[in-house]
Design brief:
Blueprint: H1 2-13, H2 41-70, H3 92-102, H4 106-122, H5 135-273, E1 300-307, E2 313-318, E3 324-329, E4 333-338, E5 343-349, E6 355-360, E7 366-371, E8 376-380, E9 385-390, E10 397-402, E11 408-413, E12 417-422, E13 427-433, E14 439-444, E15 450-455, E16 459-464, E17 469-475, E18 481-486, E19 492-497, E20 501-506, E21 511-517, E22 527-532, E23 538-543, E24 547-552, E25 557-563, E26 569-574, E27 580-585, E28 589-595
Antiparallel strand pairs: 1-28, 2-3, 3-4, 4-5, 6-7, 7-8, 8-9, 10-11, 11-12, 12-13, 14-15, 15-16, 16-17, 18-19, 19-20, 20-21, 22-23, 23-24, 24-25, 26-27, 27-28
Helix pairs in contact: 1-2
């Protein structure tokens, strides 16, 4: 009973409920042969010691319970513990007893009981020191469960370690990335600091320069103001000089008109009397000497194209005062065109064979044409008919030119002769013989009595129309000449041969002053014609490769090549104000080239 009370007290102390298993031991009846012995005094003393130990244990348990009752935790209202069924393993002696009873070994059981109690009375051992029968197995089982649990924990720890390792790798990579980023930022910061330092230095330098430039600007403004005042003074002076020049030109023009009227009166008298026209005087002013033109712009483009003839155009002439041109063609007709709008003004069927040459009368009232039918015809615009016809050549006529007085016509032919026609008497006045081959082009020196001729005999000759004598002959070309032209001021003559070689001759010094080759190393291209701008800065050459080239005389180089014709370019001329170029070719087209800054073909 005491043990039962102690067990309940311990259970209450542990706040646990126990269910004791009641085991009955069946024994023999009271008439068993077991002999009871008297208990000695020593055994009674041991029992009294056991009772004292029990009393001491009970006292300690009560003290412990009173301490727990006095503690603050007991003031809390705790729910009553739920009863639990705890299976306790049997102790060793109970296991043996149950085994012996189960197999009916009553004698053995009695002997075991007697010896067990004797040993306990002797104090050889105590029940508390005995373990359960299944302690070893339970320990092994618990160890196995613990091992399984530990293995699971090891697996979990392995997984956690792997995760931690991957996390560590990730963190390490992030650390390396941030470290690199930090280093890059530090380098950029260093570079930026250096750049800021340089910029500060540059800023200081620029401030000094700005101060210098500001001072220079102020000085320049002052100089500009002074230059502007000086320019205005010179402009006023130039305007006064231009006014004086204009007055002088007007006076000279009036004087020329008076002389022309006197000459016309004389010519009319001579014509009525059937006398030859007197030779013009040498004292005729050249208006181009003092005339100022705009600079010729080499950047030109084709702004208008006129389909002038059905066949090749062999000749073209510019009106003396207007932007009007006359064209002649292999279709035996001539046409006059207004170059401002490209309209046809007049046309006529002129000759029996192709027409190769044309020129305007200085007054603009007549037109002269030369043809392969060996004739030269003079056309009157007022009556729209041919007023005179000359048949002085024995071969096709290549070129015709009016004298600036309008009383003479100069012609060249394949018969190697140049002839001068007197319009007042209507017959040949002079014949100029000196070339040994076809004379391809003739041209008067502006406002003089001299003219130049070029021939297939590779020479250029200067003639006095009054004496029919050669003044000078220039040699130097290696092939037949196709064109010759005077500069507007008349001091220089240019000649062109079929190889594309252009030579400039000084007629006063009687020598070659320059040479240009417009078709170098091209044996299949033939040069046909040339033209000079009004300021004598550029020269143009028309070629058989459907182009014409522009040469800068000062730089001595080809600056532009103009394409657009579909066949050989035969004639080129520059208009009066030096802003447009007209060209005709074997394709029957008349093209207008205007100086445009953005559109041109550069060679």
């Amino acid at each position: 009973v005491n043990l039962k009370q102690m067990s309940l007290a311990v259970a209450e102390q542990r706040e646990e409920a126990f269910i004791l298993q009641k085991e009955e031991i069946e024994g023999d009846s009271g008439d068993d042969e077991y002999k009871y012995e008297n208990v000695s005094e020593d055994e009674q003393e041991s029992e009294e010691e056991d009772l004292d130990q029990y009393e001491n244990l009970k006292t300690k348990v009560e003290m412990k319970l009173s301490q727990r009752a006095e503690s603050p935790m007991t003031t809390l209202s705790m729910p009553p513990p739920e009863p639990k069924h705890v299976y306790r393993e049997p102790v060793v002696d109970d296991f043996i007893r149950n085994f012996l009873v189960g197999y009916g070994l009553s004698d053995t059981l009695n002997i075991f009981q007697q010896e067990w109690h004797n040993l306990q009375k002797k104090g050889a051992f105590h029940d508390n020191n005995l373990g359960f029968f299944t302690d070893v197995y339970n320990k092994n089982k618990k160890l196995k469960e613990k091992i399984v649990q530990k293995r699971k924990e090891v697996q979990e720890a392995t997984v956690a370690a792997d995760q931690a390792k991957s996390t560590w790798e990730k963190i390490r990579k992030e650390r390396d990335f941030h470290k690199q980023h930090y280093e890059r930022v530090q380098n950029e910061k260093k570079v930026l600091n250096e750049n800021i330092k340089k910029l500060k230095e540059l800023h200081d330098q620029y401030e000094e320069r700005i101060d210098e430039i500001t001072k220079k600007y102020e000085i320049t403004i002052k100089e500009k103001t002074l230059l502007k005042l000086e320019r205005d003074r010179y402009m006023n002076k130039a305007n006064s000089i231009q006014k004086e020049i204009k007055d002088i030109e007007e006076a000279m023009t009036k004087e020329i008109l008076k002389k022309q009227r006197r000459m016309e009166g004389k010519l009319k008298k001579y014509k009525e009397e059937g006398k030859l026209t007197p030779w013009p005087s040498d004292a005729r002013p050249n208006p181009y000497l003092n005339k100022i033109f705009d600079d010729f712009n080499p950047n030109m483009s084709n702004v208008h194209t006129i389909s002038s003839h059905e066949k090749a155009v062999g000749g073209m002439a510019l009106h003396a005062r207007k932007d009007v041109v006359a064209t002649v063609s292999d279709d035996c007709s001539w046409k006059i065109w207004n170059m401002k709008n490209g309209e046809l003004i007049m046309s006529a069927e002129a000759h029996k064979d192709f027409i190769s040459a044309v020129d305007f009368h200085p007054s603009g009232s007549h037109l002269v044409t030369g043809s392969a039918d060996k004739t030269i015809k003079l056309w009157d615009f007022e009556h729209a008919c041919s007023t005179q016809s000359f048949n002085e050549h024995t071969q096709p006529v290549w070129c015709v030119r009016f004298h600036d007085t309008g009383d003479f016509i100069l012609s060249s032919s394949m018969d190697a002769q140049v002839k001068l026609m007197d319009l007042n008497v209507g017959k040949c006045r002079q014949a100029y013989r000196g070339h040994t081959d076809s004379v391809n082009r003739v041209v008067f020196q502006p406002f003089t009595n001299f003219f130049a001729s070029c021939s297939s005999d590779q020479t250029v000759s200067i003639w006095d129309m009054r004496t029919a004598l050669t003044v000078q002959t220039f040699y130097g070309h290696m092939n037949a000449l196709t064109d010759v032209a005077f500069t507007p001021k008349g001091s220089t003559v240019a000649s062109l041969d079929t190889d594309g070689v252009i030579k400039l001759w000084d007629i006063r010094m009687v020598k070659e002053i320059d040479m240009y080759d417009v078709v170098p190393n091209n044996l299949n291209t033939r040069a046909n014609c040339l033209a000079i701008d009004q300021n004598e800065q550029f020269i143009m050459a028309g070629l058989s490769d459907n182009t014409f080239k522009l040469i800068n005389l000062e730089k001595r180089e080809i600056v532009s090549t103009f394409t657009g014709h579909e066949d050989s370019v035969n004639v080129i001329c520059v208009n009066h104000d030096n802003t447009e170029v007209y060209s005709v070719g074997s394709d029957g087209l008349l093209k207008i080239w205007r100086q445009v800054e953005s559109e041109f073909v550069q060679s």
